[in-house]
Amino acid sequence: MPTAPATTTVEDVLAFLAAALGTEVGPDDDYFATGLADSLFALELVTFVEHRFQLTVEAEDLALDNFRTAAHIMAFAQARGGAAAS
Predict the structure, then answer these.
(1) Start-to-end CA span in the chain (Å)
(2) pTM for the full model?
(3) pLDDT per residue as tens, the chain (86 positions)
């Protein structure tokens, strides 16, 4: 398993989102509400978060609110003690 970079920033998360969604989004843009993301993307996003922050997303963590924006992802990873979330 690859190791996470020393620091994962909101810009890193935004770069992943832009590549995966095919368009730029801001830290507070809700890509689910705008229709850019669907349930299949949600699975890809959870996998990205687990690998990038070296944490396990548990069933109780799967609330959409934890993943609907880059800012929410960062807050979730920091709260869960994810590797180098800043």
Answers:
(1) 22
(2) 0.86
(3) 445 455 789 999 999 999 999 999 999 999 999 999 999 999 999 999 999 999 999 999 999 999 999 999 999 999 998 766 65
Residue 84 DSSP one-character state: T
Q: How many whole angstroms from its chain centre is CA 18?
A: 12
Residue positions counted in the chain: 86
Helix runs in the chain, H state only: 10-21, 39-53, 70-79
The domains located in the chain, with CATH, are 10-79 (1.10.1200.10)
Burial of 62: CB neighbours in 10 Å, binned 0-12, 13-18, 19+: exposed
